[in-house]
Amino acid sequence: MAIEVRIPTILRTYTDGAKAVEASGDTLAQLFADLDTRHAGIADRIVDNGQLRRFVNVYLNDEDVRFLDGIDTKVADGDNVTILPAVAGGMR
User: Which stretches are annotated as coiled coil (predicted)?
Assistant: First the structure.
């Protein structure tokens, strides 16, 4: 099962600069574990203690997984997963 994972610029050092990579799994947790076997260290930037990191947003086919089943959200062949770190800061 091939699922496209879109990688944000800040995490592309783990994917040798690739904007999108493929991974497989039945849930996001399995998908991120598979992604980590192909691109060592990337899962630690997305997942912490079995949960999505607080400032990392993940979208499955343009839907925020926090409103689905979080890291236990089921994925299927042909789905698109987008990892998007939260952006904050600026001038006062």
Answer: none
Residue 8 lies in a domain: yes
Domain containing residue 27: 3-85
Q: Say if 90 falls within a structural domain.
A: no
Give the separation between CA 88 and CA 28, rounded to whole angstroms: 25
3-state secondary structure 20-84: EEEECCCEHHHHHHHHHHHCCCHHHHHEECCEECCCEEEEECCEEHHHCCHHHCECCCCCEEEEE
pLDDT in tens, the chain (92 residues): 589 999 999 999 999 999 999 999 999 999 999 999 999 999 999 999 999 998 899 999 999 999 999 999 999 999 999 999 887 666 66
Q: Count how many domains the chain has.
A: 1
